[in-house]
Amino acid sequence: MSNRALLEVIALDAQDAVAAQAGGADRLELVTDMAADGLTPSRETFAAIRAAVDIPLRVMLRAHDGFAAGDVDALLRDAEALRAEGADEFVLGFLDETGGPDMAALRALAPVLDGCRWTFHRAVDRAASRDALRKELSGLAGLDTYLTAGSPLGVDDGLPVLLAEAARHGEPGYEPRILVGGGLQLTHLPVLRDAGIDAVHIGGASRPGGWSEPVSPAAVAEWRAALDA
């Protein structure tokens, strides 16, 4: 079995996807509208990306900026359309008014996701209690990853939390993989890898020209090389 660390890259379109795979990405997170921090892409965008690359795709289910579920019926329609197009991995995560996980929204989506693997995204960094959220979500079908910076402020601030959670891997609520993203820098990688964290997520870091420019294969390759070092 390979010990290769997982590198996930945000892709907005097929051009991004091809560039990310060429640079060494293992998986893509598909989103639209990064001005709103990443929303659900269209069925057509998913289809174009799926036709362009052969690495796993995790598709965002998020209707608006923020961490409330909003219109759950709209989320269900999007999920159904994407599933019909062949999507089988997702990214989602909603908080209720108390800062806990919105279990009603997650349970409403469960029949459509039907056991698909999914990531609970950075809503965890805004939760009232990370530990309580993890334990409440424990055992949900398909949940295998938390995308987190350890803090709403980013990895620099959240690094102690990430290391502490990595040390608890295997405890109830701490079985899912930690996927580190949010202000992540290459200089963070050695301490994360030493702690056993083997998955990272990049967005802006793959685009030296900013979000108005496409993914750079060379930038992705730099992260690939640093992870493999």
Task: Give an overview of the whole structure.
- This protein is α/β, with parallel strands linked by helices and 229 residues long.
- The protein has a single domain (6-228), classed as Copper homeostasis (CutC) domain (TIM Barrel, Alpha-Beta Barrel).
- It is 37% helix and 16% strand.
- The protein has helices at residues 14-23, 43-52, 72-85, 103-113, 130-137, 155-167, 189-194, 217-228; strands spanning 6-11, 27-30, 57-60, 89-92, 117-120, 143-148, 177-180, 199-202.
- It has an 8-stranded parallel β-sheet, with helices on one face.
- Helix 1 runs parallel beside helix 2, helix 1 (14-23) packs parallel to helix 8 and helix 3 runs parallel beside helix 4 (103-113).
- It is globular, with a radius of gyration of 16 Å.
- InterPro entries: CutC-like, CutC-like_dom_sf.
- This is Copper homeostasis protein cutC homolog.
- One of its GO terms (molecular function) is copper ion binding.
- Belongs to the CutC family.
Q: Order of strands side by side in the largest beta sheet?
A: 7-6-5-4-3-2-1-8
- Strand pairing plus helix content: what structural class? alpha/beta
The count of helical stretches stands at 8
Distance between the termini: 18 Å
**Relative helix content:** 25-40%
| Series of H and E elements | EHEHEHEHEHEHEHEH
What's the CATH architecture name? Alpha-Beta Barrel
CATH fold category name: TIM Barrel
- What would the principal axes of the Cα set say about the shape? globular
Strand composition percent: 15-25%
GO molecular function: copper ion binding
Family: Belongs to the CutC family.
Pfam family, one: CutC
InterPro entries: CutC-like, CutC-like_dom_sf
